[in-house]
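Q: Given only this backbone (214 positions), what sequence would you predict?
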C-alpha cells in the first residue's frame, strides 16, 4: 500500500495520469488502463519507497501519546487523542512552528525521493500501477460502504425492544439446532462409508448400526 500511495503521489506531482504518460506508446498497449507486465526488479527496487511525511499535528500526537498513556494507563486511546487534540489547539504558535518546520523539511526530502524514483518508471509501469491503485480504491470504497451498512444494522438492533429481539434470538437457536442435527447426520454417514478423515469435529459419532454408545 505504501508503494501504491507513493506512485499515486508521483502522478499527482507530475500533474498527469498514466494515460498521459503513455500517450507516445503507440499500439503497445490496448488502452490507457491495459495491464502491463511489471518485472520483478521493479517491485524489489521500490520496496523502500518513501512514505509521506507526518503532518505537524500527527508528529505532535505521536510524541504526546506515550506520555499521556503513562499518565492515564486506564484511559482509552480515543480519550487520550481528544486530550492531545485539545493540547494542540492551545499550543502557542511559536511551539507549533517547530513541528511545522520539521514537516516542511521532511516534505522537501520526500519530493526529492519522488523525483528520483520517477526517473526509474517506464510509462507502461505507471499505467499498470495506476490501474492497481484504482482497483484498491474501489475495494476500499466497497469496504467502507459495507461497514456503514453494518453500523446501521447494529443501530437498528439496539433500538429493538426485548420482545422484538427475542423473535430473532429464537430463530437463531432453532437454526443452530437444525445445523447440529444435520451435521450429526452427515458425520454418521461419513463414518458408515469409512470416511472418518472428513470429520473435523473433535466428537465423532458412531455409525447407526454400531451397538456401542457414547
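A: Predicted residues:
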Amino acid at each position: 500500500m505504501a508503494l501504491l500511495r507513493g506512485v499515486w503521489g508521483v502522478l499527482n506531482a507530475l500533474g498527469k495520469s498514466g494515460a498521459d504518460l503513455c500517450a507516445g506508446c503507440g499500439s503497445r498497449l490496448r488502452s490507457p488502463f491495459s495491464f502491463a507486465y511489471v518485472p520483478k526488479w521493479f517491485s524489489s527496487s521500490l520496496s523502500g519507497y518513501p512514505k509521506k511525511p507526518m503532518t505537524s499535528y500527527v508528529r505532535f500526537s505521536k510524541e504526546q501519546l506515550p506520555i499521556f498513556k503513562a499518565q492515564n494507563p486506564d484511559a482509552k486511546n480515543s480519550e487520550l487523542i481528544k486530550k492531545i487534540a485539545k493540547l494542540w489547539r492551545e499550543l502557542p504558535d511559536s511551539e507549533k512552528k517547530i513541528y511545522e518546520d520539521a514537516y516542511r523539511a521532511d516534505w522537501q526530502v520526500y519530493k526529492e525521493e519522488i523525483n528520483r524514483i520517477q526517473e526509474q518508471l517506464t510509462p507502461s509501469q505507471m499505467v499498470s500501477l495506476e490501474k492497481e491503485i484504482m482497483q484498491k480504491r474501489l475495494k476500499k470504497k466497497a469496504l467502507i460502504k459495507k461497514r456503514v451498512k453494518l453500523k446501521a444494522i447494529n443501530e437498528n438492533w439496539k433500538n429493538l425492544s426485548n420482545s422484538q429481539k427475542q423473535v430473532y434470538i429464537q430463530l437463531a437457536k432453532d437454526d443452530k439446532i437444525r445445523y447440529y442435527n444435520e451435521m450429526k447426520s452427515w458425520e454418521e454417514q461419513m463414518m458408515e462409508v469409512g470416511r472418518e478423515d472428513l470429520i473435523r469435529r473433535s466428537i465423532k459419532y458412531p455409525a447407526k448400526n454400531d451397538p456401542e454408545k457414547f
